[in-house]
Amino acid sequence: MPRDPRFDILFEPVRLxxxxxxxxxxxxxxxxxxxxxxxxxxxxxxxxxxxxxxAVVSTEEVEIxxxxxxxxxxxxxxxxxxxxxxxxxxxxxxxxxxxxxxIELVHGGMNASNQYSRDVAIAPSAIASPxxxxxxxxxxxxxADIRAYRRWHRDAALRARRAGFDVIYVYAGHGLSLPMHFLxxxxxxxxxxxxxxxxxxxxxxxxxxxxxxxxxxxxxAVAVRFAVDELRGADGIESSGEGREVVALLAELPDLxxxxxxxxxxxxxxxxxxxxxxxxxxxxxxxSLTSKPVVGVGRFTSPDAMVSQIRRGVLDMxxxxxxxxxxxxxxxKIESGEQDDIRxxxxxxxCVSGDYTMTPIRCTQNPTMGEEWRKGWHPERLPPRTAxxxxxxxxxxxxxxxxxxxxxxRGHAVVLAEATAELGGRVAREARLPGLAAWVRVRDYRxxxxxxxxxxxxxxxxxxxxxxxxxxxxxxxxxATGSRWRVDGVGxxxxxxxxxxxxxxxxxxxxxxxxxxxxSPVVVFDDDHYYLGAILAEKLRxxxxxxxxxxxxxxxxxxxxxxxxxxxxQQRLLDSGVAILANHNVKGYAGGTLRLAxxxxxxxxxxxxxxxxxxxxxxxxxxxxxxxxxxxxxLATAGVVSVTTIGDALAPSTIAAAVYAGHxxxxxxxxxxxxxxxxxxxxxxx
Length: 686
Ligand SMILES: Cc1cc2nc3c(=O)[nH]c(=O)nc-3n(C[C@H](O)[C@H](O)[C@H](O)COP(=O)(O)O)c2cc1C
Ligand code: SF4
Prior knowledge:
By secondary structure, this protein is α/β, with parallel strands linked by helices. Strands 3-4-6-10-11-12-13-14 form an 8-stranded parallel beta barrel, surrounded by 6 helices. Strands 17-16-15-18-29 form a 5-stranded parallel sheet, sandwiched between helices.
């Protein structure tokens, strides 16, 4: 399809010092849990982004020295020449598709706990790491240390050029690097020419930019990533104050300004807490102070919003981390007039959890993310059909929808039967909860794709029985019937039912989402530890109920530290008047009283609860699977070759896991059975 002329401006080239970006799409640095440990997987992932049309494709944070060892987190590594081949794999993969390769050089300073290198961390002034409870401190850098650091940075820039990179970052963002620590008055208590006034605190950043330009600036663009606002008021850098002054001081020095807000949780803000383009107010001043191109971020998925950023003079290039993860082909889809096919990021931050759990990146919307090399999965290309199978998929939640989409794209005949009138399963229900509206994109993208496929038929309001399966005529049956929340309190903390749970005024999340009313005061017992317990507490509170969230964990929604949400979730609960009782388990419920016990001492207490919402665990909807299993040979006689249960119906998990399960089955159902490891591995060489 021809490109919509409204979007032409997005495809104008942009000069970045000595190099030219072919369009305005810039994949800004993002870590991925693969980094230096899985370089082939990492390179293939970046290569797919380049193929998808991003003019610049960046690495994540790349450690430049052993004293910046970010272990156990898996980032990039450029400690010496032995790291070059791995990084060259990446730049080659990016160049193969005509994009520029960028590298973000990082010294983490006090944020580098050096658990592998066992070096002593360094900082502008002696300090305990502000971001972790690691029981060690950073020492104050001497002038000799500063000189050494500048030398390491310069050497890293030279090595990066040898590894093939075109854009070299000096990184002063997120509070995660030395130049930023020097800028931050609260961390820089020096009394020499690197401390005190802003000009002094910005001296190191200036020197690094100059060093890098001097070392590689003739052939490489030198970019600065700078957090113009830390969103912590006068205690930090503010875009109306020092953030602005830093840009004014260094305005023409770099070839490109990449500006955002800090810290990471503020920058990669989930859709629950901020809309697309939310950083505009903080970064819009930058272009008025520099003639150099400016890139910024804000979970941009709408081409109209992108055009507006350029036309209104806010940004020159559209930076994206999460939108490029959810859809590596976003630029190409706009370029070819297929913007309606963009798989929009839902802002859930599951992608961030890969970094926190030190495992390859995964994405709710894009199940191929992180699988490009090890499974050979491409986000837009699928293996051809190998047989004339006809599929019956039961259940149109995230697993069923994705399975149908991929099978349909492979050319199979598919009937997708949904028992209810609504498609989307848990996604449709959960997207109606406070703050989760953007999550409905998981359903909408897939339904919109399915509607274009002549081989896929969607049947709403169609519960399926075992007898109907026998009569149906499908060769393969996929059960994606989802799960429902338990009411008996069984979960992580309780492996036996909780006395008094099971009925009456004890409600499950399904009950609340289906409109059953809870009575006040209500206790939300959260032994699930992800987002749902806190969101239900928020919903009940906003309906005027007195709400206490009880959890066996040390804080609300404990797992959401991995998605950068925990702090904000707890803050929102407290601000809205939800009481939080951490480190407590439930022991029993009777007569409007909930008995509790401290998870450490076992000491018992009681709390009044006219109702309880129990968020502990789910059970798979496996009734049809059991009925079909009982049919035995009758299935084969009816021509059914396989019955496979996927997603929450097999074992409840995240929406990302459900989408992955649907995708995997649709790609791999016809692969030969094997006990081999189902993906390629990168093994250490002896
Ligand atoms: C999974 C993930 C990893 C990230 N890692 C880095 C990183 O290594 N260095 C960095 O400067 N920013 C990192 N970021 C921040 C992004 O570059 C970006 O500024 C932020 O996500 C906002 O952009 P977005 O709304 O397009 O995602 C990361 C973001 C995500 C989602
Ligand atoms: S995991 Fe969620 S936030 Fe991250 S890119 Fe995918 S959809 Fe967006």
